[in-house]
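Q: I'm building a small set of examples for a reading group on sequence design. Run inverse folding on the following structure and report the sequence directly after it, with nothing in between.
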């Protein structure tokens, strides 16, 4: 609702209003439809559909993409463990769990990440996955083996 209390705009589209001031100036109010969503334990800004960069800062400093370090670490461990299973260095996930000192379920969850489509893994590495995708969210969702369905799930989660 604007300051004068005239009406609430529920269109969800970006818009701008100009309010004349008594001294001849103009007060400009801008509405940008942003949402705050959880990404793990943090909240991130998510813009409207079709907007890749919801907030643009005009400065000389370059804003780098957000890389999710816990996701990258889990993805790396999963790929490493899958490689060890493929080469025969270990026989099963229980052996990896015993050697690493972690629960077998954690090993199995990280091994599922090794089956992600290459473009999804690359997007995680570059930090270009949707901002709401986190390690926790990936582990809670059922990730199918079909890469096309994986892309659909990532799109739905984002």
């Amino acid at each position: 609702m604007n300051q004068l209390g005239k009406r609430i705009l529920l269109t969800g589209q970006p818009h701008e209003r100009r309010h004349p001031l008594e001294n001849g100036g103009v007060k400009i109010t801008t509405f940008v439809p942003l949402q705050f969503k959880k990404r793990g334990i943090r909240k991130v800004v998510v813009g409207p559909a079709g907007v890749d960069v919801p907030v643009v800062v005009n400065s000389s400093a370059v804003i780098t993409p957000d890389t999710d370090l816990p996701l990258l670490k889990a993805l790396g461990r999963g790929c490493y463990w899958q490689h060890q299973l493929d080469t025969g260095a270990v026989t099963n996930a229980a052996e990896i769990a015993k050697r690493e000192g972690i629960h077998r379920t954690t090993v199995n969850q990280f091994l599922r990440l090794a089956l992600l489509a290459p473009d999804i893994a690359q997007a995680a590495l570059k930090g270009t996955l949707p901002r709401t995708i986190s390690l926790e969210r990936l582990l809670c969702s059922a990730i199918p083996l079909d890469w096309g369905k994986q892309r659909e799930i990532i799109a739905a989660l984002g």
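The chain has six helices and four strands.
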